[in-house]
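Re: the 184-residue chain
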Amino acid sequence: MIENLDQYESKMKSSYQFMLDEFGTIRAGRANPHVLDKIMVDYYGTPTPIQQVANVSVPEPRLIQIQPWEANMVKEIEKAILSSDLGINPTNDGKLIRLVFPELTEERRKELAKDVKKKGENAKVAIRNIRRDAMDALKKAGKTSEVSEDEIKDLEDEAQKLTDKFIADIDKAVEEKTKEVLTV
C-alpha cells in the first residue's frame, strides 16, 4: 500500500545527486580535484581511485598536484591519466605529478556547455521516469481499492509537485554550471 512518496523522492534525490557528481567531473578551466574521481590506477593488480594511492592538492587555480604515497606509483598514475579522457599531459619530477590546466578555448567551452545541458536532460528524463513509476503504483493501488480516489488524487498531485521541484533544481544547476563553463 502506498501512503507516501518517500521511496520515489529518495530516487529523485539520488538522480539529482548523480547529475551534480557528473558536473563535478567537468572541468571549467579551473583546477578541480574531482576531475580525477573516475580515473583508476593499477595498484598491485587492483583498479584503485587516485585519491586512495596519493595526496591530491590544488596549490594554484590552474594546477593539480598529485603526490603518491609510494614512489613506484608515479609511473602508474601518470599512465592512468594519459589513458583517460582528461586531455591533460601530466608532468612528473620523480616524486610529484603536476597537471597544468590550460585556458579553455571558446569552442571547447561551448562543447562543455552542451555536455552540461545533455547531462541535465538525462537527469530530467530519470526524474520523469520515477514520477511515471509512482503514478503507475498509485493507479494500481486505486484499482485494488486499498486507497480512496481522493487520497490517490492527493498523492498524484504530491508526486507532480516533487517532480516539478526536482526539475526546477536541475534547471538551476544546469544554468549555474553552464555559466561557470562559459566564463573566461
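DSSP finds four helices and six strands in the chain.
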